[in-house]
Design a protein that fits this description.
heterodimer, A: 0% strand, B: 324 residues, mainly alpha, 12 helices, 67% helix, 0% strand, globular
Chain lengths: 122, 324
């Protein structure tokens, strides 16, 4: 049993390794074949051929941050629902009603965010 | 039970397989788009341009990888790794047929969702480290988009998990086993979940109409503006690997995986279904214009998210009432 379990996970590790090897190999091959002649013009940041104006690492729309926060909340809640989804068929109505109330609470959170105009992109 | 060495060979085989699929889908995309627009597309390299993707790959290898000044070098150079490797790792759990598969993971679909979100960090690294306004904007848009569409995607997968009672992709496909009775496929029992999943899939791989992160008319190319040569090719490849892996996950979840009427072998069914989905994605690309940023966000949060939550509740209710 435990052997089978580890067998599946050793595959994951090996796939990661093969992916890593592939990236390293193609980058090395490219390094060997491709020319490497850096020049001042070439190393300018691209900005439609003009000299870049201002600092690129500037301020960004705060909305991105708000959506990321919302995502973290709802994603954690979605993760909680996965184990329930696997077993709830055998656990009967009580499990269903408990998860139903959980979903209602999530939905209330979403409605709250909606009403507070957090979901509006401006 | 395979030894580590043979597992390595399987993984290598999968890598070669995905590279061939990648070249095929690149060719298919160019040809399909061309014909949608009454053009011929690539014609010179080989029969109907069949060798075009190979020629493109060769060109990518021999192009210079220039590193612009002012970039955060470590992040800039590791980003292609972080983007490509997770995209490839998803291949480990895809069941092509009952026997042709690598890892038979108990939490297969959960693993897919988890690994897919690692790529997001790679996009962030690529966009941030490039020291360029366009790439920073592009990567912020990518993150916003991934984040908004991962939730409806996860919730629509949840409905399928409830139906099948397992997270194992192999068992989910087996729950839809059929001969001629294709109505056992979950697309017929969970049409809403399929639609949500497919839209979210389209957004997760940033294809038109959801290609805001790389909207070429406003952002040049998004997070990979400053990438060139092989590093750019790796980012591009990750995108196409994601295209294939996500559509094959969609096939497994909703279209019965390798099951179909017994006129064709299972593997053929699997690729037929997957490539039909890929073709539909090309078709939407040729048909639809790009959505606006606010439309994108409101579709994700105000339409798909509530719809997915309601779908979960309805599915639960139907299972409790023994309809499914």
């Amino acid at each position: 049993m435990i052997q089978q379990y580890l067998h599946a996970y050793s595959y994951i590790a090996i796939f990661a390794l093969v992916g890593l090897l592939y990236v390293v190999v193609v980058l090395t091959v490219s390094r060997l074949l491709a020319p490497h002649r850096p020049s001042k013009e070439k190393s300018h940041p691209y900005e439609c051929g003009l000299v870049p104006v201002g600092e690129p690492w500037g301020q960004l729309n705060i909305r991105y941050y708000v959506f990321a926060l919302l995502f973290v909340l709802f994603d954690v809640e979605t993760v909680f629902m996965y184990p329930w989804a696997v077993v709830f068929r055998d656990m009967g109505w009580s499990a269903f009603l408990e998860m139903f109330s959980f979903i209602v609470i999530i939905a209330l959170g979403l409605i709250y965010a909606w009403k507070k105009n957090v979901l509006r992109w401006v | 039970m395979l030894s580590l060495g043979s597992q390595f060979l399987v993984a290598l085989g999968m890598l070669i397989g995905i590279l061939i699929i990648l070249l095929a889908s690149m060719w298919l995309e160019r040809k399909a788009l061309a014909h949608f627009q009454f053009r011929l597309g690539p014609m010179r390299t080989g029969y109907h341009g069949l060798l075009q993707p190979i020629a493109d790959a060769m060109k990518m290898v021999v192009k210079e990888m220039s590193v612009p000044e002012g970039v955060d070098v470590i992040l800039y150079k590791t980003a292609p790794f972080i983007v490509f490797i997770p995209a490839f790792m998803v291949m480990a759990v895809i069941p092509f047929t009952a026997t042709i598969k690598a890892a038979d993971l108990n939490m297969g679909i959960f693993y897919v969702m988890a690994v897919l979100s690692i790529s997001t960090i790679g996009y962030m690294m690529a966009g941030w480290s490039s020291h360029n306004k366009y790439s920073l904007l592009g990567c912020m848009r990518s993150i916003g988009q991934f984040v908004s569409y991962e939730l409806p995607m996860g919730l629509s997968v949840l409905a399928v998990v409830m139906m099948a009672g397992t997270l194992n992709l192999n068992s989910i496909a087996q729950a839809q086993s059929c001969n001629w009775n294709i109505f056992r496929w979950y697309i017929f029992k969970q049409p809403l979940a399929f639609i949500i999943f497919f839209i979210a899939l389209n957004a997760e791989i940033c294809r038109v109409p959801f290609d805001l992160p790389e909207a070429e008319s406003e952002l040049v190319a998004g997070f990979h503006v400053e990438y060139s040569g092989m590093r750019f090719a790796l980012l591009l490849m990750a995108e196409y690997v994601g295209l294939f892996t996500l559509t094959s996950i969609c096939t497994t979840l909703f279209l019965g995986g390798w099951y179909g009427p017994p006129v064709l072998p299972g593997l053929v069914w699997f690729f037929l279904k997957t490539f039909s989905l890929i073709f539909i994605l090309f078709w939407t690309r040729a048909t639809l214009p790009r959505v606006r940023a606010d439309q994108l966000m409101s579709l994700g949060w105000k339409v798909l998210m509530p719809a997915a939550l309601i779908n979960v509740v309805i599915t639960g209710l139907l299972i409790m009432l023994k309809v499914y």
